[in-house]
Write a structure and sequence with these properties.
Elements lengths: L1 E8 L2 E8 L9 E10 L19 E2 L3 E9 L11 E5 L7 E5 L3 E3 L6 H5 L2 H13 L8 E5 L4 H12 L3 E6 L2 H7 L6 E4 L6 H7 L5 E6 L6 H7 E9 L13 H6 L3 E4 L7 H6 L1 H7 L1 H5 L7 E6 L3 H9 L6 E5 L6
Parallel strand pairs: 9-10, 9-12, 10-11, 12-13, 13-14, 15-16
Antiparallel strand pairs: 1-2, 1-4, 3-5, 3-7, 3-16, 5-6, 6-8
Helix pairs in contact: 2-3, 5-6
Amino acid sequence: MQSWWMRMSAAGAELERRDVPVPEPGPGQLRVRLHAASLNRGEFIAGHGLHPAGGDWKPIGAEGAGVVDAVGAGVHALRAGDRVMGRCPGAFAEHALMEAGEAIAMPLSLTWEEGASIPLVFLVVHDMLVLQGRLKAGEWVLVNGVSSGVGVATLQLAKALDANVIGTSGSADKLARLAALGLDLGLHTRGPDFADAVRGATGGRGADLVVNTVGGSVFAENVRAMAFEARLATVGYVDGVLHADLDLEALHAKRLVVFGVSNKLRSKAQRVAAMPRFVAEVMPQFAAGRIRPCIDRVYEFAQLPEAKARMEAGEHLGKIVLRMPGGAA
């Protein structure tokens, strides 16, 4: 089968297309004939640690959608022929293995491309907004880099939870387009200069939950923009700034909570434990059409280098998707 592999070098992320054997599912696993998989920027950034600089070649891709074509021992809830989507290492390939406990039955109302755009990003967003962020209806969410894949998904789920959303972006055009998804206030900036506008929009209170997809360059400004008993989630650092000052006086006086959102160090059991609430609370939104994944562009399998270049240039709004060889349109 065809598969994309990657390694990090001094020049950045290098890609290679290979022919490799079709994998066999182990106990508790599914083999999925993938129809689509989506890109996630963290895979291509050395600082995120998913692919260390100077490391070996590894298969790439982290989430996809397709049809189960083989099951391992102990799998009973799913069988060959089922439509599924989920997290799966090596998703930029014709076949990939998926843990049965992390596979999600895919509603018929979703296209393959939409299904491939949900698992990783919306699981992260659910963790960020609900499980750790304790978001309530009527609260204000500030999203740095709201036009990214995680940013758009955060906007969509936050609005479904009846929250108000402020987003920053370096593109005025993208902010205008996100108004159709319910963005309450768009701030055209990439710099740490938005706290006053956030406080102004919230009647002087500040944001109740901050989602930082940008990194250390905006961390201190996020703290300034936070309300009493607010929460700050760090989910990425595309700016490459991995350290930032923390105002301990503000942290103390405003009773702030600062947390990270990542699956890098979580065990399989910890990842699986979060699935039931996601399926119960978020999947009905997709099945009913109240949320539809925002897809920027779909590329054919051979065009992964072009898809990666678009992501790295920051030209996208929402998710970039790769269609597998022979995958249905």
